[in-house]
Amino acid sequence: MSSHRPFGLPAAVAAALLLLTAAGCSSTDAKASIPVPSPPAGEATLCQALAKELPDTVAELERNDPEPDSELTAGWGDAAIVLRCGVPRPEKMSDPQTQGVSADGVRWMLEQREGDGPRFTSVYRETYIEVSLDERFAHDIGPLVDLAAPVKKAVPCALEPECD
Fold first, then answer.
1. pLDDT of residue 9
2. What HEC string does the chain produce?
């Protein structure tokens, strides 16, 4: 009669330890790298004011600013939400078929990105603010709602009847 050694439990424990070790070695704290805009001085001043107003959390994600460190950029989560202030006016803004949304009095132009989440650019403000969302937010403008009050406070409306 042969004896059987129960390998199921020790193998499962070994696999779990291997996964934990691999997870511990992976770098989830690495910061995303994004291009920093180069707006004119007046717009940069507005962006600096916005940087002081931005929340610590957006859509329940903690602030985690991208590299390089700049008052013109901000991020939340692991690059799930990335804000760039002082970006150039997108060419797509001239397209009359472009879609937009309004979130708590701030209007945004919507760009669907292939293989990624949406990108929104503010309209009717004295500088353009771009917010890129990963695919988790493909159908959720909640992050824009969280950013609306700081945008309204720091970046004045350039076209009064169009702003709430």
1. 34
2. CCCCCCCHHHHHHHHHHHHHHHHHHCCCCCCCECCCCCCCHHHHHHHHHHHHHCCCEECCEEECCCECCCCCEEEECCCCEEEEEEECCCHHHHCCCCCEEEECCEEEEEECCCCCCCEEEECCECCEEEEEECHHHCCCCHHHHHHHHHHHHHCCECCHHHCC
Which class for 111: exposed (0-12), middle (13-18), buried (19 or more C-beta within 10 A)?
Answer: middle
pLDDT of 137 > 60? The answer is: yes
Predicted TM-score (pTM) above 0.85: no
What are the tokens at 94?
A: 């001239």
Question: How many Å is the Cα radius of gyration of the chain?
Answer: 22
Q: What is the mean pLDDT of residues 75-95?
A: 96
State the Cα–Cα distance between residues 23 and 42, nearest whole angstrom: 45
Spatial contact of 121 and 111, defined as CB atoms under 8 Å apart: yes
